[in-house]
Amino acid sequence: MKRLNSLITILVACALAVSVCASEVDQLKADLIGQTMGGREKSWKFQSVDQIKELVIKNKTEDAQKRVYTIALQLQAAAGADKYAAEAKVEYWKKASGWQIDHVGLLSLKKME
Amino acid sequence: MKRDANCRWHGLEGNAKATWVVGALICCFVICGCKTAKQPDLGEPLAELTPSQKAQFREGKAVFQREFTPETGLGPLFNSVSCAECHEHPLVGGSGDEIEVHATRFVRPNSCDPLFDQGGPVIQQDATPLLRAIGVLKEQVPSRATAQGRRSTPPLFGFGLVDAIPDKTLLSHEDPYDRDLNGISGHANRAIDGRVGRFGRKAAVATLFDFNAGAFPQEQGVTTPLSPVEETINGAPVPAGTDPAADPEIKRADIDKVTDFLRFLAPPPRVCFTNSHERHQAKRGEKLFNAVNCCACHVPKMKTGPNEIRALDRKTVHLYSDLLVHDMGPSLSDICLGQAHPSEFRTELLMGLRFREHFLHDGSAPTVQEAIERHGGEAQPARDKFKALSKKDQEALLKFLDSI
Predict the structure, then answer these.
(1) Smallest Cα–Cα separation from B351: which of B80, B61, B39?
(2) Which residues of A touch B (CB under 8 A)?
(3) What is the DSSP letter of B304?
């Protein structure tokens, strides 16, 4: 019985961790909309969540004023369009209203085969 | 009679004389056929800017002219030390004699890889002393590239107005399947994120801001908050110790300032020939421009959309382009970019043509006439009609092009 309780506790903790992580990813996706990274032929303006086929948080740092995510992305403008793999740095700044996205920096970009 | 008139003139008071002078000037303009009010001179800001917008123009111009050094962000790889180093003729914001190299990979029928991971599509032609010291003098054309293209420096006058033209206006000129059977089948190119493109010789860039945001890292090797890492050397990171400036090397506000400068930079003023022969020649040339169907792609004017900036709000832009990409034939073909095939190029804007010294996308035509004669593909029928014109008519058409 004790073992079963422990197992349930572990499973609940894992599910909670996954859901927190998922909500953080969803929040990031939502915050990216309207942002532009890169420039010229390498510009990507996030216009809809549908364009973000995959978002993985690779790193996160935070201090009192600034939160910085390093993320890996798979992007596709529309169905049938070329897919791109990107890495980006997303900076949030603490404002009176809470954390607000400041800008997105493009670290690398590659057309996927 | 002459004497009477002279007498009357000398008998007039100062104010009345001024009225006569203004009246005479108005008559001159009407006779001359200059229908527009005073146009800003070349290099000046648009009319109707507020004092604060004029101040933004001046601040942006200063950033456009800022010369970078390795200590302030230049390189390690770069093409120029400032925006104005290339965009210099005949004034800041104009064209230049530098020729760039771009390279991409095209696989038939429709696959275009801009080779971002190998340093493409802009190949930097110069390196700072620290990079040169370890044997890297410039970037190489990527090994996977299927073609390279040469690119001249375009003049940027009036680009703010071009930026303010709604996408739907561009798209209204599309006819990719040539449904009207006129032999012209232009289509809009798209940026990699799917937005309608209009800037660059292949129209692969959606906005003026995007172009400027990318020009700093790609042309000057200057990192920005939106591109916070240095351009690679054909995919390899720059060696440690070759980049003394901390990243990002400029602020986001600097990109905004340069964009303000270009947004507010007035289009080139039209010429009003004072010589009546030239005036009539240019007028006839304009008719011939339309008659030989140059205007099918070099659309004489478009209108900007509603804009909170009064100087850009619903203004007519005499750009002489449809901003679409067209097949220009195999002899001009070079790289693909976005949805533009190697032989497809955006219709070149002709406003300010008279200030250029080299023509075509690669600057390889020394005269406008040669540039016209090298048009192929969709433009071949118009080119053939031009070549079939009498010498006098060709000169008239060229005179018109010299006036816009």
Answers:
(1) B39
(2) 36-47, 51, 75, 77-78, 81-82, 84, 89, 91, 103-111
(3) -
Q: Quick one: three-class SS letters along chain A?
A: CHHHHHHHHHHHHHHHHHHHHHHHHHHHHHHHCCCEECCHHHCEECCCHHHEEEEEEEEEEECCCEEEEEEEEEEECCCCCCEEEEEEEEEEEEECCEEEEEEEEEEEEEECC
Q: Any idea what DSSP says for residue B77?
A: E
**Residue matched to tokens 């060696």:** B239
Rounded CA-CA distance A28/B185 in Å is 41
Residue B38 lies in a domain: no
Show the tokens assigned to B328: 């220009």
Closest-CA residue to A45 (of B198, B165, B226): B226
Tell me the nearest-neighbour CA distance from B108 into chain A, angstroms.
14
Neighbouring CB atoms inside 10 A of B111's CB total: 12
**Given CB atoms, is B101 within the 8 Å cutoff of chain A?**
no
Find the residue in B nearest to A51 (Cα): B193
The phi and psi torsions of A6 (rounded to 5 degrees) equal -60, -45
Interface A-B, measured as beta-carbon pairs within 8 A, has a size of 109
- Per the structure block, which two tokens stand in for B204? 């692969």
- Judging contacts by C-beta atoms under 8 Å, the chain A residues touching residue B116 are 41-42, 108-111
Domain ranges of chain A: 2-111
Instruction: Please identify, in words, the CATH class of the domain defined by A2-111.
Output: alpha beta
Q: Which of A38, A107, A108 sits opposite B214 (nearest CB)?
A: A38
Strand, coil or helix: B99: strand
What lies within 8 Å, CB to CB, of B22 at 6+ separation is none
Report pLDDT digits (tens) over B344-361. 999 999 999 999 999 999
Query: Are the C-beta atoms of B217 and A39 separated by less than 8 Å?
Result: yes
As for the ipTM of the complex, it is 0.89
Structural domain boundaries enclosing B146: 51-401
Length of chain B: 404
Q: Which of B110, B199, B227, B251 to mutate to test the interface with A (most CBs of A within 10 A)?
A: B227
Identify whether B26 is part of a domain: no
Q: What is the pTM of this model?
A: 0.90
Query: Contact A43/B213, CB-based, under 8 Å?
Result: yes
- Angle at which helix B252-264 crosses helix B51-65, to 10 degrees, equals 110
B225 interfaces chain A, CB cutoff of 8 Å: yes
- Please check whether residue B21 lies inside any domain of the structure: no
Number of domains in chain B: 1
pLDDT of amino acid B38:
80
What tens digit of pLDDT does each residue of B155-175 get?
Answer: 999 999 999 999 999 999 999
